[in-house]
Amino acid sequence: xxxxxxxxxxxxxxxxxxxxxxxxxxxxxxxxxxxxxxxxxxxxxxxxxxxxxxxxxxxxxxxxxxxxxxxxxxxxxxxxxxxxxxxxxxxxxxxxxxxxxxxxxxxxxxxxxxxxxxxxxxxxxxxxxxxxxxxxxxxxxxxxxxxxxxxxxxxxxxxxxxxxxxxxxxxxxxxxxxxxxxxxxxxxxxxxxxxxxxxxxxxxxxxxxxxxxxxxxxx
Length: 219
Prior knowledge:
By secondary structure, the protein is α/β, with parallel strands linked by helices. It has one domain (about 1-219): Aldolase class I (TIM Barrel), CATH 3.20.20. It is about 35% helix and about 20% strand.
């Protein structure tokens, strides 16, 4: 089970989390987020993360130049687009940095994944290969980290695992419900931010430890 702990801000917190065995740590470059980090902060965090743990930058409607600066400056392993970015925008990133992973975060509109299917087809036409698709809850005015649950049943029934990128489940996952979430959706991985925090933007190491242990027990 691939596990990403997202929205890490402090060097020592990143060091401790990396020792717990996640597959990736998310660094949030969205200025309006309580989990925001600068490129300099992200670069310092990257230095304490073992090479086996991916550093994935999270962006929301950032300019292309801003994404490039962060990828190069913080030695990112992946870029997660969490806003309204077009497939053509993603294609530019893939061309500039062919070695990194591209993750598309998606917040289904209503109870259908037809909107994602349309976007995926546009991505194929643009030559974009998504490494993963992160499925999050849709909350008005929020681009993620809201703590709201995604529609597990809808995702399980409608996500085409044989055609679309590996699904990563996000939205309101905690150590208390992670095993139920995995059993209900059978995702390729999980992404957690607020579910392992003691306060907005403040990671709780014990919660992180318990969540990773329980997630990794599943398969």
